[in-house]
Amino acid sequence: MTALLIRLAGPMQAWGASSRYSRRDTEQEPTKSGVLGLLAAAQGLRRTDELAHLASLKFGVRVDQPGSLLRDFQVARSLDGKKTFPLSYRYYLSDAVFVAGVEGESSLIEALSSALKNPTFPLYLGRRSCPPSFPLLLRTSDESLEESLRRFPWQAAEWYRAKQAPRVALRIALDGMDGVEGDMVKDVPVSFDPRHRRYEWRTVVDERMDVENPSSRIRGHDPMAALGGS
Amino acid sequence: MYLSKMPLNRRRRGAVKLLSSPQAMHAAVQSAFAPGSFVESEGRALWRVDELGRDGIALYVVSPVEPDLSHVVEQAGWQTGEMWKSVEYGGFLAGLRAGQRWGFRLRANPVHSVYKSDKAWGDTKPVAHLTVKHQQTWLLDRAAKCGFAIPDGPQHEAALRVVDRSTLKFNKGGHSVTIGTATFEGVLQVEDPVLLRSVLTNGLGRAKAYGCGLITLAPLGIG
Asked: Pfam families, alphabetically (chain A) (predicted)?
C-alpha cells in the first residue's frame, strides 16, 4: 500500500457534501468526493466515466489551518440580461490549509501522482472559482496514510502560526474501518454523472496530533514576570 | 506606583460591555480609586486589555495607588481564586538602568496632524496612522524622547512588531468617537531611565483614557 499526500491551500475553498438548490454549503474540511473528483480531473476522467478504482481508496485529511467561513450572496443574470438566475448563498472557507491523502495500490498511486504533475483538466479546490495557490502534490510514500499524515510537517502560514499557542493540536479526519464508531458523511462518489450524481455514506474517525509551534507569539508578554511572576 | 492584573471572564455580560466600550472600561478603572486618593500631578491610571491566547483576557492597570477592582470582578471577572493582583511597581521602576533590554508591549493611538482643508491653514486635526510602516515610524520617532531605543535584531525576532491593529468606535455623550490603535511588541533598550520611568507611569501618545499608551516591560527570553 502506498499513500499520496496533497496540499489544499488557496484564498478560497468550498467542499460541499449535502448542498441542494440555492444554498451551497461547505464542510469544515475537504470531502472525499471533492478530492477524488480532483484526482479524476487530473487523470482526465469524464463525469460519466467509471470511478470505482478511486472510490476504493482510503481517504484522510489533516486540518493545518482551519480558515474562516465566508458567505457570498450571489446574484446572476444571463449575458443578454433576459434571464435572472436564482439568488444563492455560497459558502467558502477562506485562508484554509489542508493536507489530504489517499492510500491504495502502488501502481494506482503512482498513476495519480504523475497525473497531478500533468493534469488533463484544470484543478480547483471544490468549486471552479477556487484555484489552489500552491502546487498540490506533496509526496508519495510507502507508509500507511495515517502514518504519512502524522509525519508530514505542519503547512500553516507563518501569520497563522504566530497567532497560535506554543503547542497546537491538529485534527485528522480519516476513513473509518467497518464497525468503527464515528460521524457519518455522505460523500463517497459513486457517479459524478451530471444527470444522476450518486454518493454513498462513509464513517469519519477523528484523531489529533500535537505539533510544536516555535513561531507562537502568544506565550508572550507577561509584565508580572518582571515583578515576581503572575 | 502599582501594576495590577485582573483576568476577565468574557462569558459574563459585564465583560462584554466593558470590552466593547473603552468608555465603560475607563469609567470602571476610574472607579477603582477613591475620590481624591491621588492627584493629577502624581500620575494617572493607565490601563490596557491583553489577549492571552487561550488563557483568556487580562486587564492591566498602572496607577499611583493600589486599585480596588472588586466592582469590576463583580461585573466581569472571576469570583473564585485570585480576583486580581496588584504589585508594587516603584522598586522595579527604580531598578531601570541604561543599557538594560526588556521585552515590551504597548497599545497606542498613533496619529499625525493634518490640516482640515487645503485653505484653512492653522486648523489641524489628528488623524490615525493606518499602515504598519507608519505606525512603526510613529513609535520610532518617539523612542528617544521616551528614554528608550529599539535595538536592531534579526528579522525573525524583529525588535519591533505590530501585532494587532484595530479601530475602536464608541459613543461618548451622544457623539461617536473613533480611535485607531496599534499594538506594538518587541525589544527595547533603556537609554534614559528617568524619561522611561515617566513614560511607564504617564503613558505614551493619545487616548490614554481608552486603553492606549500603557507600556509594560517583561524579561526577555520568556517570550
From this structure: Cas_Cas5d (PF09704)
